[in-house]
Amino acid sequence: MTIIKNAEVLDPVYIPSELPFREREIQRLEELVVKPLRDGISTTLFIYGSPGVGKTTTSKFTLLNHTEFRSFYFNALSHPTTRSILADVMLKLRNSGVARPSTTEIFRQISNWQKQKGMNILLIIDEASNLLRNDLAGLQMLLRSSEAYNLTLSTVLISVDDPGTFLRGSRKISPLPISTLRFSRYSFSELYGIIMRRARDALYDGTYSPEILRMIAKVSSQYGSARLAIELLQKSSYIADYVSSGIIGSDDVRAANALINPYITESKLVQLSEEELIVLLATCRCLYRFTKTDIPCIVMNTEILMESRLRRSPTMSMIYRIVRKLEDLGMIESVIEGHGSRKGVSKSIMINDTPVRVLEKKVEEVLDRMS
Predict the structure, then answer these.
(1) CATH number of the CATH domain containing 210
(2) Which tens digit of pLDDT belongs to each residue from 32-52?
(3) Which of 101, 326, 348, 354 is close enough to 258 for a disulfide, judged by CB 3.0 to 4.6 Å?
(4) Which residue range is the domain that position 304 belongs to?
(5) Rounded to whole angstroms, how far apart are CA atoms 145 and 136?
């Protein structure tokens, strides 16, 4: 049974028809960019925030839908200078151009097009820190083009970095007229909502469970990144599809995470003692079919493994100490979960960085060499 019904929706660059949890940012884009440009006022907005928090998607979703403007999107990694961006704009507007035109000629050509068409221009420049590092003077010329060349042109700059990192105290240029908009990281519940919508639109019913989506949201919530969450869903789906399991399992998510962020290696395992490896192995066995487990399951499997290796079972305090060490090493994760009024709390244990059956095999190989 195939899992994926619409692979396009699983692409991290896909722009959905609705954009939840970014309503405030959409409103600010309308206020700071769209309304002024509609009124013939040029503005500059600098959007910044951690990777995967929706800066590019929200900008495209909001701004490229306004057909009353002529809009362009560029990535400054492929257009490393302001001049190369402007030359590309000129060619797209006029479908022809002067060979190796000067910057002044480029601005003149763009200005002539605007006078003929009567349309205002919007530029979205992603990875803008590349321009701020390498072409600050050229960027200043662009942002002051409304004054120098009588252009109605607004610019949205997108970057991971706070613009103050580059502009504060700079002696190379005079202060730039820039507004800023910071995107915060997504919360666990927001990531779950995003993934739930993507899964609904991309996958067939019955091929995923709410628990699997919560697992993906939990892994990606460490970074607050929707991009990571969507990529995990995409890769998990393809892995489950490849093995024809018919449903995404917890080990599919772990395998996807290992592809994106490979972490546990044999060099880390050989630094553990035999008792620590056995507790880790017991944790793997508790997680075969589940996204999380608990201490009682780990204790039971540790006792079984110790007995099979003719070793004395460790005390509860030793197991707790080993679990804490494995957490400190980043090999397992834990969360304290409540069970309702007067029902207390318990500690749930997870392994999210690698498939537990793959990790189990590695641990067994290291243990065998110790025998």
Answers:
(1) 1.10.8.60
(2) 999 999 999 999 999 999 999
(3) 354
(4) 266-370
(5) 14
